[in-house]
Amino acid sequence: MAFLEIENIKKRFADTEVLKGINITLERGQVLAIIGSSGSGKTTLLRCINFLETPEEGTISVGGKVTLDDQVRSGKISDSELRERRLNFGLVFQSFNLFPQYTAKENLTLAATLAAKDKLKMSGLSKNKSALAEAMDDISKKADSILARMGLADKAGAYPCQLSGGQCQRVAIGRALMLDPEVLCFDEPTSALDPELTGEVLKVIRSLKDSERTMIIVTHEMEFAKSVADKVIFMANGVIEEEGTPEDVFDHPRSEKTKAFLFVEKS
């Protein structure tokens, strides 16, 4: 059994079928790059994986445990169970989506703090001041460690408006890492950046592969996809048109649609 199994995901908006039965499997620690033209369904797929959209059909499992199924679609699971399933995934948005009123460190600790308080409440320790203080201290130390790993130790107290685009994206990556997701997803992580800032973000993402973290990266950076991915998927018109190793897809594409897309990207 694969670590991540995505089976027959279908999603439509009104009369438009955006995803037409997507099937993906990944082993733990593998990196998947998803490429394709705008409107091919790439971002919608990531949103379905991360519970930001609910597909009409399909299932998703991580480590043998179901995260998305008919129970989620019908609303038959509790809010706490739904939150628990969502924590399997982390999503880094292309436009950062940082909270402007919070510092870089506060952006990292906010969701982790809410999750910790929720966990203490479920265990009956919400009024235990020492347990809460210990949890908050652990979160603070973890945020400091991640900021240092992102090269932002000196920016912990800075607000998003005081950071460059590349720094904001690195804060967004750090925020996703705070909750230790089983699968980390990136939606065009460099599309909002100036070319000179793209390299610093790609360097951070490459470093995450060294930790054997399972990742799904929607990207328009073909050379980056070729160098970092274990598997590449080319999507077109809501289906997986072609998939394989980077060498298969980039150097020996079989589909005429893939060939045409890569030709345009190179020109």
Distance between the termini: 40 Å
Strand order of the largest sheet: 6-7-8-3-9-10
Radius of gyration, taken over Cα atoms and rounded to an integer in Å: 19 Å
Q: What is the SS-derived class?
A: alpha/beta
Q: Give the fraction of residues assigned to helices.
A: 40-55%
Q: Spell the H/E element sequence.
A: EEEHEEHHEHHHEHEHEEHH
User: In percent terms, what proportion of residues is strand?
Assistant: 15-25%
Mean residue pLDDT: 93
Count every beta strand, where a strand is a DSSP E run of 2 or more residues.
10
pLDDT < 50 stretches: none
The main pleated sheet reads as: 6 strands, mixed
Shape: globular
Number of helices: 10
Give me the secondary-structure topology:
Blueprint: E1 4-13, E2 16-26, E3 31-35, H1 42-49, E4 57-62, E5 65-68, H2 70-74, H3 79-86, E6 89-92, H4 104-122, H5 129-149, H6 165-177, E7 183-187, H7 195-209, E8 214-218, H8 222-228, E9 231-236, E10 239-244, H9 246-251, H10 256-266
Parallel strand pairs: 3-8, 3-9, 6-7, 7-8
Antiparallel strand pairs: 1-2, 1-4, 4-5, 9-10
Helix pairs in contact: 4-5, 4-6, 6-7
Describe the protein.
With 267 residues, this protein is α/β, with parallel strands linked by helices. The protein has ten helices and ten strands. The protein has helices at residues 42-49, 70-74, 79-86, 104-122, 129-149, 165-177, 195-209, 222-228, 246-251, 256-266, and strands spanning 4-13, 16-26, 31-35, 57-62, 65-68, 89-92, 183-187, 214-218, 231-236, 239-244. It has a six-stranded mixed sheet with strand order 6-7-8-3-9-10, with helices on both faces. α4 packs antiparallel against α5, α4 (104-122) runs parallel beside α6 and α6 runs parallel beside α7 (195-209). The protein is globular and about 60 Å long. The mean pLDDT is 93.
